[in-house]
Amino acid sequence: MRAFRAVMAGAVAAAVTVAAGCGGGAETTTPRSRPLQVGLVYDIGGRGDRSYNDAAAAGVDEAKRNLTGLRVREVEAAQGEPAGRKVERVRALAEAGYDPIIAVGYSYAPALASIAPRFPRTRFAIVDEPTVSGPNITNLLFASEQGSFLMGAAAAMRSRTGDVGFVGGNRSPLVRKFEVGYVQGVKHVKPRARIRIAYLADPHDLSGFDRPDKACKTARRMYRAGADVVYQVAGASGAGVFRAADQADAWAIGVDYDQAKSADPAVRHVILTSMIKRIDVAVYDYLAGVADHTVTSGRIVYDLKRGGVDYSLTGGHIADLHPRLERLKQEIIHGRLKVSPG
Asked: Which Pfam families does the annotation name (predicted)?
């Protein structure tokens, strides 16, 4: 059943840890004789965003290849839609008998909090914080501050100007964790470095994750002001940061996915590295757990130690930095270096 775990063994440990205080959660499975009917609801940008949503899609695609009889219905979100549409989307899948239902992104937290209690025999999972509690809800979480610390360290090591940037899709607590980790990493390597920070939207406005033109203008201002490395945590908007880096002959850092492989080929050469968030592994593991009746409710945290976050070496641009980054990574894993989430 866990073929994907075996495939990813070099990058991700097979087990995941249920966060302390949750007691492992209650099993949320009920026996099923029919094939799994999976409902998957995407965040803004959907499949094809070459970032966050595509990472979830990759986990589902791998599950289709390895888990017998899996059937999936994928539903997109629309930019600027009212919050009630997410509730309607999740409820419609539950009423149609989809089980489990996976929500990609924190914006679905209110929808799951509302719908999951009404369908106690349906299993739900949500990717990212905030945590949604319930006996039939699994929270797939990531220590993004740890991976972002390494991105900050890499940016500071590579920067010639001592001036780097950060562009976030919106000013939500989730994206702030990336910023906080990144700043800690930069300052650990270069305490006097200048860090330019910009967000494309307010905390509850998801449009910032699908505004590549706005992201391009924002990053362009940073590069013109002196930044030579910019880390983007902006979903589909990240394409705009890559475009600005290409125009400025500077570096950009990707997120969620190995974007030196997934971005437009015309800009891949400017992607220094990417903070990989193994959403694909988390989604696959969840579906495998549902299939073999081992899935639990509660928080499951994917961190550096568990291989849930990491960084990419594609392009060879940080080959010379790799030994130093690995030392920092091991210090975090073994608790000698603490990274605050905020």
From this structure: Bmp
